[in-house]
Amino acid sequence: MTSPIPVTVIGGYLGAGKTTLVNHLLRHAGGRRIAVLVNDFGALPIDADLIENREGDTLAIAGGCVCCSFGSDLVAALGKIASRDPAPDHLLIEASGVALPAAIAASVSLHPGCANDGIVVMADAETVRERAADRYLGDTIERQLREAGLVLLTKPDLVSAQARTEARAWLEKFATVIEAERGQVPIEVLLGLGSSLLSGTASARHPSYDSVAFEALPPLDVARLAAALADPALGILRAKGVLLDLSGTPRAVHVVGRRSEICDAPSGAAGRLVCIGLRGRLDRARLAAEITPHAAAAW
Amino acid sequence: MFTIYRARRILTMNPARPEATHVAVRDGRILGAGSVAELAGWGKHQIDERFADKVLMPGLIEGHSHAMEGTFWRYVYTGYFDRMDPDGRTWPGAQSIDALIARLREASDALKDPAAPLSGWGLDPIYFGERRVSRADLDRVSAVRPVGVLHASGHILNVNTKALELAGLLRTGVSHPGVPLGADGLPTGELKGPDPMMMASSHVGFDREVLAADELGLRSFAKLCVRKGVTTAADLANLLPEDAVGMMLRVTGEDSYPARIVSLLRLQLLSGQALIERALALRVRSTERLRLGIVKLVADGSIQGFSARLRPPGYYNGAPNGLWYLPKEVLCEAYRLALKHGVQIHTHTNGDEATELVLDCVEQALRAHPSPDHRFTLQHCQLADAAQFRRMKALGMCVNLFPNHHYYWGDQHYAMTVGPERAERMNACATARDTGVPFAIHSDAPVTPLGPLFTAWCAINRRTASGRVLGMAERIGLDEALRTITLGAAYTLKLDGEVGSIEAGKRADFAVLEDDPRELGPASVKDVRIWGTVQGGRVFEAAQL
To answer: If we measure between CA atoms, which residue out of B86, B537, B198, B450 comes closest to residue A73?
Structure first.
């Protein structure tokens, strides 16, 4: 069986910038075949210049990408995406404004052809606090934020510096926050670090972001390291690696913001780890220091 | 030439002449109800004596059901309560897990193909105490064929091991709140919520395509209508794709089709503008027996599933608040456009917070587009309080309440979901009446069985399955209840000028009863025996279907 398709769930209320982000990612797919599933009311929200063709309810998009909508049957939509030939490199699910993204991720986990690769929740700097105080919406907004691996603060340039700082500080209560003007965030931060990045070419090309790769790591305590990588003090937004545990078994590690996950890894090259963070916030020295003792335990 | 039917008694629902002995019918319409001498003045006629010992009422109107009830009867009924199928057979309730297994095994043994799926519906394990149905239970039905049983709520599916295997779920490491795991780390076979259910449903024979537009189901549903005295039934949430509309027009257009179906267009993946345009396009295609053009929106989930949106103090057992099914912006835009274009909207709200939000949105939309007689209707609206009924009145809204819930889940509402005080307030028919909010009552079939006389009994008596009277103050009288299942429901569908009472000019739609509901009285109105119906002047005897 081919390896499962990594899936990123994009949540957030109406107007938070989900559609802008999806279009940005499609524009900067960098050779990835991205599939997009949207659950929203109205026309598929893809910029017209990106659309090459329409086949029924599926839009063919430049660069081998596709977009389709799903109504009440996410499972069938996942099946359709997973059976595409060639298989997409990544699936984005744009949740509806009132959906709880963790519930979507849980459903993704039921599908053997898909693997969760994080939840990104968008928050509009202009309106998120107001929405969170709304008598009808408040708890839904907070639940969405609490379920996020990364919160993407959008339209930060449209508010005062003070409002921006306040919004950011408030959002930090829920998850790791990154800021994006007009959805401008490097694709690796949002879509994870694909296998190409593990072959040693990792670089976050965006000037605001920094990345660091570790190669040929010896067997180490994978669980402790994964927990350590999720510490916000390290400044990691995303990390991915295939590491050997102390028994020599390869284990895959994913970190998205403050959440880390370990799962079985295919045998093959192991002992690699790539981390991405904000330039100036990614603490390379401390990161190296974190990895060394875990590794040293096995030496 | 026209026909004058003589009856033992005719309850007309026309306050000007509430009772009659004769009704005259010509070309599917009522010429009048009165004495034979009065009606003879219309000219040359024949007297039909076949209803001489029957009681006639206006054809009953089910204001919120789903034609899918007809479809479900192709699967094995496994509910706790006795239930009549479209062919008139009453299936005894399966009141234990053993009885459930025996019922399914009998059906399994009758299937020739050993690999063919077997499915049941109507399961309600809430009556089996703490014990949940497991895949081991259903493996006793068959270890070879996939077996699935849908719960009465429609929100949980139990499957056997074979079905789990086919769904790719017979593995460890499944991590989903809707997929409970056993001690062995494998799923127990209970699949809760749409996504886990969808993984297995097609493997056990619940094919979505079939459920969406099912010709046999539409026919079966109409047979049930005749058996329950129903001549008009709302099919409350249909996506109405073009092929389904074509099929429904063809089937309901047949001379022998015995019911009028009002099919509401459910919003999914459409912008507000597209939704209203679709509703307007459908409306002009309405026929005598298929009415189209009303829109259905869903604001929240269900109370017993803890997915309804409640205002404080929330769920009695401390469960977190439920889910919004549509963003408020979508609701507001739909109402605004609907008022602008004269489209009627019915909105599902179960929890009182969902009701409050819809009231806010409708109020806002009405300010933009003041619209007399819009008859926007709240469906279920189970938890509304007196203040919300006053707002409905002020905004010109209708409500369709769900008293069957008291009987089937009232004990659970009392003990678990909303607690005693609010359980007694649920489905506040008396408050609706006293406030002057036009109201109907419904079954939501197949969630509870179709049968407006049973629903009337629930509204009159408010008894739970265990015998508790839930909310004495909200009981209504027999005459009010009978009016509610005829004219009341007709009003919410804007059909009250056409059906709902027996008077000159209206459609000749009658429920033909063996017993007089007034003689049986409020405690026994559910036991009224039904002979059949007259629909558009055509006679349908249940025993001859």
So the answer is: B198
- Convert the pLDDT of each residue in B11-48 to its tens digit: 999 999 999 999 999 999 999 999 999 999 999 999 99
In the predicted structure, residue A270 carries a pLDDT above the cut 90: no
Q: Among B205, B230, B253, which residue terminates a domain? A: B205
Tens of pLDDT, residues A115-134: 888 999 999 999 999 999 99
Q: How far apart are CA B72 and CA A191, in angstroms?
A: 43
B218 and B122 inside one domain: no
Of B169, B176, B198, the CB nearest to A106: B176
**Rounded percentage of chain B residues whose pLDDT exceeds 70:** 99
On chain A, the residues whose CB falls within 8 A of the CB of B328 are 136-137
Distance of CA B263 to the CA centre of its chain: 12
The range of the structural domain enclosing residue A168 comes to 5-189
Across chain A, mean pLDDT equals 85
In angstroms, rounded to a whole number, what is the distance separating the alpha carbons of residues A162 and A7?
35
Q: Report the chain A residue with the minimal C-alpha distance to residue B331.
A: A41
Among A71, A98, A109, select the one facing B176 at the smallest CB separation: A109
**Interface with B, mutate which of A13, A19, A40, A75 (most B CBs under 10 A):** A75
Q: CB of B241 within 8 Å of any CB in chain A?
A: no
- DSSP line for A37-95: EE--SSS----GGGEEEEETTEEEETTTEEEEE-SS-HHHHHHHHHT-SSPPSEEEEE-
Do B216 and B186 share a structural domain?
no
Same-domain pairing of A37 and A185: yes
Residue B39 lies in a domain: no
Q: Does residue B358 belong to the interface with chain A, where contact is any CB pair within 8 Å?
A: no
Residues A251-278 have a mean pLDDT of: 83
Among A127-136, A221-230, B493-502, the range with the most confident prediction by mean pLDDT is B493-502
Q: Mark yes or no for CB contact B195/A106 under 8 Å.
A: yes
Contact A88/B at CB under 8 A: no
Alpha-carbon B528 to chain mean position: 20
Q: Could you give the ipTM of this predicted complex?
A: 0.85
- For residue A144, give the chain B residue with the closest CA: B323
